[in-house]
Amino acid sequence: MRQIFTAFIFMLISHMALAQDTKVVYHLTTGIDTAAAALNNVKNHVAADPTAKIVVVTNGPGIDFLIADAKDSKGRDFSGSVSDLAAKGVEFRVCNNTLTSRHIDPSKLLLETKIVPSGVAEAAKLQSKEGFAYLKP
């Protein structure tokens, strides 16, 4: 009887682990040149695993693509890609320390963004306290 109970508990724990959705934080700290490639990674991730919980945390030059009217090296706006991903559940978080140090008015950010006190602290919190995998494209 004890072996059956132990096997049942093991099976239950295994099932619960498999049932959890993937949680990933993409940490962007570099400028517009790499943002397009990073967003492409996020798009591919969403396509491969639509149930994944994805948060893009930005700080330093990594916030630049989230400023209204930002364009990639080919002159394409980022707003459409960000809007499409946000509609699929991807969250975009921007470091307030960066906004303050660079004197950027928060009203200049895309509507899909959320301001957090510190991008670095946010990425660390998601990874250590909320179980997010950390990716740095």
Give the SSE map.
Blueprint: H1 2-19, E1 23-28, H2 32-48, E2 53-58, H3 79-87, E3 91-95, H4 96-101, E4 113-116, H5 119-128, E5 133-135
Parallel strand pairs: 1-2, 1-5, 2-3, 3-4
Notes on the protein architecture:
By secondary structure, the chain is α/β, with parallel strands linked by helices. It has a single domain, classed as 3-Layer(aba) Sandwich (Hypothetical Protein Ychn, Chain: A), CATH 3.40.1260. It has five helices and five strands; from the N terminus they run αβαβαβαβαβ. The chain has a five-stranded parallel sheet, with helices on both faces. Helix 2 (32-48) links the parallel strand 1 and strand 2. The longest helix has 18 residues, at 2-19. It starts with a helix and ends with a strand. The model has no long low-confidence stretch (mean pLDDT 89).
User: Helical residue percent?
Assistant: 40-55%
Query: Total helix count?
Result: 5
Arrangement of strands in the largest sheet: 4-3-2-1-5
Instruction: Indicate the overall shape.
Output: globular
- Could you give the order of the helices and strands? HEHEHEHEHE
Low-confidence stretches: none
What's the structural domain tally? Answer: 1
CATH superfamily: DsrEFH-like
Look at the structure and give the CATH class: Alpha Beta
Please report the distance between the alpha carbons of the first and last residues. 50 Å
Please give the CATH architecture. Answer: 3-Layer(aba) Sandwich
Counting helices, strands and paired strands, the structural category is alpha/beta
**Strand elements, count:** 5
Radius of gyration: 18 Å
CATH topology: Hypothetical Protein Ychn, Chain: A
Main sheet makeup: 5 strands, parallel
Mean pLDDT: 89
Q: What proportion of the residues form beta strands (DSSP E)?
A: 15-25%
